Amino acid sequence: MLRIILFWFKMKVAGATRKVLSPNFDKEGIKSILKGYWSRYKLLRRDIGKQPTLGGTVMVHLASMSTTFYNELTERGISDAKTTQYFYDIAWKVYKIMGGFSWDLTRLKYQNNPKRLAYATELFRMFPFNSPSYKWKNIPQPDDVVRFNCEKCPVAEYFKDKGLSEFCVNTWCALDFPLAKMWNAKLERTNSIAGGAKVCDFKWIAND
After folding, report:
1. CA-CA distance, 153 to 27, in Å (whole number)?
2. Cα end-to-end distance, the chain, whole Å
3. Residues 50, 55: Cα–Cα separation, whole Å
4. What contacts 24+ positions apart, CB below 8 Å, involve 11-15?
5. CB distance 96 to 182 below 8 Å
6. Cα 128 to Cα 151: distance, rounded to the nearest angstrom
7. What is the DSSP letter of 49?
8. What number of other Cβ atoms are within 10 A of residue 156's Cβ?
9. Any bridge partners for residue 146, and if so which?
10. Gap between the Cα atoms of 165 and 170, Å rounded
11. Which DSSP category does 47 fall into?
């Protein structure tokens, strides 16, 4: 199952990479980048430990792919800022597929926007961000607000180990905000584990 999921992500990332990079790179250049990043990942994945959940394992492998993409571009002389923006744009194209699927599923159970929001965040915490790889703590709120803390994040731990916490904050963590808009909500978060905090504090506020 892990190989099937990672293959799906590989195909989606390749397509997104071609779209994002095509204004600034020719086809051969993009092909070379994809080949280089994947070759790096195949070497790096040997040291990836298995998480207690399939979702956690998938996420850490994706963090490894993110790391090799970052290394591939920066070692080609592309600035950290441009590499980060490229990756953010690529990752969002994939993340919004995941978010859109979950949001569509909520419509099968609820029509009320706050309830759909609560269910969408629940689905994500069922897979791929599920316990015990991730550790969550719910905080009771009014019906139109969903609040919880993430007390353990294997992705943040992985990026910290690679010295790329700032990259994680500006890409992985930052993608939660457009996701909230997709889910017809607003996300408030003061900090994240990758940003140096003890917890990621999520507060999702449903739009009227």
Report:
1. 36
2. 39
3. 10
4. 12/93, 12/94, 12/97, 13/65, 13/90, 13/94, 15/93
5. yes
6. 16
7. P
8. 23
9. 204
10. 9
11. G
pLDDT recorded at residue 123: 97
Give SS3 for 206: strand
The neighbour count for residue 103, using CB atoms within 10 Å, is: 19
Rg (CA), the chain: 17
Phi-psi region of 196 (alpha: psi -120 to 50; beta: other; left: phi over 0): left
Assign residue 141 a region: left if phi > 0, alpha if psi is -120 to 50, beta otherwise?
beta
- Most distant CA pair in the chain: distance in Å? 53
Digit-coded pLDDT (tens) for 105-126: 999 999 999 999 999 999 999 9
Whether the CB-CB separation of 171 and 188 falls below 8 Å is answered with no
Q: Which CATH number does 2-206 carry?
A: 3.90.1520
Q: Is 181 helix (H, G, I), strand (E, B) or coil?
A: helix
Which residues in the chain come in under a pLDDT of 50? none
- Supply the pLDDT for residue 208: 76
